[in-house]
Amino acid sequence: MKQFNKIILLMLFGVTVFTQSVQAQSQAADTRFSSRLAISPYAQAVPNDSYTFIGISHPSLDSALTQIGLALEVIDMTTTVNNAAGRVQIFTVDAGETHRVFVVNQSHATINNLNSSFTDSRTHLINTVDSAQFGSIRITSVSERPELAAGSRDVTVGTTKKFDNLAQLNIWGIVYVESSGAGFAMEFIGDAQDSTIGGAANANSTLGDGDSVDGNANAAGLPRPARGIN
Question: Which of 2, 19, 36, 66 could lock 141 by a disulfide, CB 3.0 to 4.6 Å apart?
Fold first, then answer.
């Protein structure tokens, strides 16, 4: 029983430390590690015309930690607070959750911090100035050990390795044109949608052959570490 209590305390300590690290970070990390990055090449916010919506879902893949922190940043857009901290929203996505991010001009009549529909803990606003803004989106992960390669930042639960990189999340979005009630979808490069089945079992895989056992290739094949696998 004492051993069980120790394990629970260690788990709670880990969650607390991780949450504090996310809260302490005020701007996106300047990283070039592909495992920590996801990008979308276009976003816009035009007063009385359009805004950008982004959804980030944690589908609780077998390979995912239950909490994944990230920083979502707008690039080449002038925000109300126009500095590194004002261009980013930083938050933690728990397993089974979806967070909403709106990139919208500051005087938007509906999407603002006075509307209770947009003030819950899973909704985040990045406000731009009241002029047409065009740019892109850059998402970076928040990790306790960012200097390590993605395949080394794992926690083993039972016999399964769990990771905190962006390949464990589904990221999707739209540039929405209000006058027409339509828009166009955004593609995010680097999320779970870019994870594929690897190894010799998949002839079209870019992940390499499966591991060898006593010189014999493993027909099932194994994907590289930190890929989003269910």
Answer: 36
